[in-house]
Design brief:
transmembrane transporter activity; Macrolide_Exporter_MacB; 27 helices; 9-stranded mixed β-sheet; 25 strands; alpha+beta; transmembrane helix
């Protein structure tokens, strides 16, 4: 009980000094808790959405994954509904027409649809849709010229009753007006719904008059979903897929689960980085508090306190700090989750705060992370406090023996750095990405730990160099700032180490991102011969749009490019493959390198090319024959005409055949649509052809025309956006690191109160004192930046060499970014010193001198 009272008294007497450490815990736990609440809420939103849309049993056409991607929905005869309706245990059965390969365009030629990448769903306004949503304004569609749209899209895209729209589908483009607005019973995560009159939906969306895409079946009372599924499957045979509500929910969750898991684990990863940085801050805080309380602890030991009691006293303070900080962090995490939901809403993914989900595991996880991190971080300072002897403390000699410990630590750190460096070299030298990735992970871990361990040893050397280079101009004030930063290398190393982690990740990611962009630009320059690329990120190119491209004047040639699903058998082994089916002009548009044969020969009838890995695995050479079974078509014997190099970024490992070969072995209705198209202008008419292509595709805003410069810029922008998101998440760790600098300087000012008073007494002005503390902060920040950026560039270089096996061959060091981050670190150092410098400047000189 005495130890507890002592710990409580000490904790609350130093609560100001604990505040910044507590804030680091709050931020770290808030990120963990916020991530859990946000992902649980997102899961609940999708789960309720899927549940509301799924009937008891669904009947669909078979062979979805094995069929060629024609852009058309798989269909069934409408008469199937009556067959299903007659099955015992069926209360109702309704046919549904639904197509997701559509685009809605307003009369200004602008696409109307989701901004989040969610699908646009066109369906019939029949009983199945009416069970899932209500008509909230207007009237149901009557005939071919009217549609309903969902309320979320209408509000987001400013669509009103009576507005004219175009529906661009595979069968053609249809002109309609909005007759009504609907609202789903559950929260719509972001999809757009366009609902047509049932009597015309099949013709307009599927191109068939009496066709449906699925049958929604409701079970009679007393009949389970699984039982009804078995009855329906037995009645209609094996030509259809029959799924229960549970099956549909599992499939939908698998489709969305990967996306949700990426968000969840990525955010938890960044939260872990913030927790790691926070541990540095807490270790520093308690180490300094223990050092400042040396006399107090010595007195406690002199009057009978045991080492265990001293140790327990420090750990109890850490426990209190962890509990309070974690509790506040859990509450802040819920607020963070609400903020993330609002951010997702602005991005087009709808989330309702009324569905906010705080499971019991969230506060438990938050408290566990916060408390464990704090107690573990305080364990070393607590042990150090317990080893203080009463007489050594009373003589203020509690730092003896640190030199030897520093040498042992330095040797261990250099050993870890050497081992990590060797692993990074092995990663860079590995021939395959999988092998290189293993060495890369080991190298990252060892070099990070090694840099942390050796930090105090480097502090004396690097800080001295930085001080000599940057602080010389500030005269005696600069020299004192440098000496203060070198005074306690362990403290300086730990403070800079927290900043080092965040900046190492920033540096490595900037190197990887720049290298990826540079590799792509070189690949485009070396390989792409086409002047223009017609591309889409969401849909296959509809026949109408493809015809518009072919009819564009001023083009020397146009190349169609689609993917055909084929089962290839070679060397006695069969495997499912996706083969590029393109026109022979693709050999000009994409100058793919070969290790054997000529790529142009692969476009001859019943010929193909394969990648070198496939050829090696199956013992193939040019001239060998391969058996190909076309999904939805017949089986053919194809001759291997070329083996392509895989030392490429574009079409890495791709297989090629002509579209004529694909057409010869596939029914017309199974021929896939274009994924992308290429075009080359007539000599001297590039600008005119570019403008003509853009005009030809104006009615189809889902497809984008790019020349090579545009394509490079798009790729660069995509990488830049991804890096900006990562940098924003890393900012949390850097903020925590900045708090560490602030806390270190604040406690250092308290520790040096008497010294500061003496310097003020002999003539140091307040302005000079504040400048000295700011310069000390800048030196610490730049030390952390040098370590972090140096480590990051080593990581990024090794990662680029690993990616080189996948075609990313160019190493690009973004020196402007590295320089900006280094300069920004100095600014961070200045900002972190504002509060400690202000506090130091306000000290009463006589009071400071009298401090014991």
């Amino acid at each position: 009980m005495t130890v507890l009272k002592t710990s409580l008294r000490s904790f609350f007497s130093h609560k100001g000094r604990m505040a910044l450490s507590g804030l680091a815990i709050v931020l770290s736990v808030a990120f963990v808790s916020g991530t859990l609440v946000f992902s649980d809420t997102l899961n609940k939103t999708f789960d309720e959405f899927f549940t509301d849309l799924s009937p008891d049993v669904t009947v669909g056409a078979a062979g979805g994954d094995e069929a060629q991607d024609t852009g058309r929905a798989r269909t069934m005869p409408g008469s199937l509904v009556d067959e299903v309706r007659a099955v015992e245990g069926v209360e109702s059965a309704e046919g549904l027409v639904l197509d997701q390969n559509v685009t809605v365009v307003d009369r200004e030629g602008e696409a109307v649809g989701p901004t989040s990448g969610a699908p646009t769903i066109a369906a019939d306004w029949g009983p199945s849709m009416q069970d899932s949503m209500d008509l909230v304004s207007g009237h149901a569609p009557q005939g071919a010229g009217e549609v309903l749209i969902d309320q979320d899209t209408a509000e987001r895209q400013d669509v009103s009753l009576g507005d004219a729209l175009d529906i661009v589908a595979v069968p053609g483009t249809y002109h309609v007006k909005v007759s009504g607005i609907t609202k789903l019973h559950s929260t719509n995560p972001g999809a757009m719904y366009v609902l047509l009159a049932p009597e015309v939906a099949a013709t307009e969306l599927l191109g068939e008059q009496d066709a449906i895409t699925s049958v929604y079946v409701t079970a009679a009372d007393g009949v389970s979903d699984e039982e009804l599924k078995q009855r329906v499957a037995a009645a209609i045979g094996d030509d259809y897929e029959v799924d229960s509500r549970a099956d549909n929910r599992q499939d939908m969750n698998e489709d969305v689960g990967g996306f949700l898991d990426v968000i969840r684990y990525a955010m938890l990863g960044f939260a872990g980085i913030a927790v790691l940085v926070g541990i540095f801050l807490i270790v520093n805080t308690f180490s300094m508090l223990v050092a400042q309380r040396t006399r107090e602890i010595g007195l406690m030991r002199a009057i009978g306190s045991s080492r265990r009691q001293v140790n327990r006293s420090v750990l109890i303070e850490a426990l209190l700090l962890g509990l309070i900080g974690s509790a506040v962090g859990v509450g802040a995490g819920i607020g963070l989750a609400v903020g993330l939901m609002q951010l997702m809403n602005s991005a087009g993914i709808n989330m309702d705060t009324s569905q906010l989900t705080v499971s019991a595991t969230t506060p438990v996880a938050g408290l566990t992370v916060g408390v464990l991190a704090t107690v573990l971080a305080a364990w070393l300072p607590a042990r150090r406090a317990a080893r203080i002897s009463p007489m050594a403390a009373l003589r203020e000699a509690g730092t003896q023996g640190m030199a030897r410990a520093g040498r042992v630590r330095g040797a261990l750190g250099l050993l870890l750095l050497g081992g990590g460096g060797a692993a990074l070299v092995a990663a860079a030298s590995a021939g395959e990405a999988a092998e290189g990735s293993s060495f890369l992970g080991i190298g990252l871990l060892l070099t990070l730990v090694g840099a942390i361990v050796v930090g105090p040893l480097l502090a004396g050397i690097v800080v001295r160099v930085v001080s000599a280079a940057l602080l010389r101009a500030f005269g005696p004030i600069g020299r004192m700032a440098g000496r203060n930063a070198r005074r306690n290398p362990r403290r300086t190393g730990a403070t800079a180490g927290a900043l080092m982690i965040g900046l190492a990740l920033v540096g490595s990611l900037s190197v990887v991102g720049s290298s990826v962009v540079a590799s792509a630009e070189r690949e485009l320059d070396d390989s792409v011969g086409a002047d223009f690329i017609i591309d889409t990120s969401q849909q296959l190119i509809t026949p109408e749009a493809a015809a518009a491209v072919h009819a564009t004047p001023g083009l020397e040639h146009v190349t169609d490019y689609s993917i055909v699903k084929v089962e290839l058998t070679a060397g006695g082994e069969s495997s499912e493959q996706e083969v590029t089916a393109a026109d022979p002009t693709y050999a000009q548009d994409m100058r793919a390198r070969t290790v054997e044969g000529e790529l142009a020969d692969a476009y001859r009838p019943d010929h193909l090319s394969v990648g070198e890995s496939f050829a090696e695995d199956h013992g193939l050479q040019v001239g060998d024959e391969v058996t190909a079974r076309f999904a939805g078509g017949d089986t053919a014997t194809l001759t291997l005409a070329a083996i392509t190099s895989e030392d490429t970024l574009i079409d890495h490992g791709a297989m090629y055949m002509s579209r004529e070969t694909a057409r010869a072995h596939l029914p017309a209705e199974s021929m896939p649509l274009n994924m992308v198209m290429f075009a080359t202008a007539e000599d001297g008419h590039e600008a005119e052809a570019y403008a003509a292509l853009q005009e030809a595709l104006q009615p189809y805003p889902q497809f984008e025309v790019s020349d090579q410069a545009d394509y490079k810029q798009q790729f660069k922008d995509e990488i830049g956006q991804l890096l900006n998101i990562v940098y924003a998440l890393l900012a949390l760790a850097i903020i925590v690191a900045v708090l560490g600098v602030v806390n270190t300087l604040t406690l250092s000012v308290v520790e040096r109160t008497r010294e500061i008073g003496l310097m003020r007494a002999i003539g140091l002005s307040r302005r000079q004192l504040r400048r000295m503390i700011r310069l000390e902060s800048v030196v610490i920040a730049l030390f952390g930046a040098l370590l972090g950026l140096g480590l990051g560039m080593a990581w990024g270089t090794a990662a680029q060499r690993v990616l080189a096996s996948e075609g990313f061959n160019v190493l690009e060091i973004p020196w402007p970014t590295i320089g900006a981050v280094f300069a920004g670190s100095a600014a961070v150092g200045l900002a972190a010193a504002l509060l400690p410098a202000f506090r130091a400047g306000r000290m009463n000189v006589l009071g400071a001198i009298a401090t014991d």
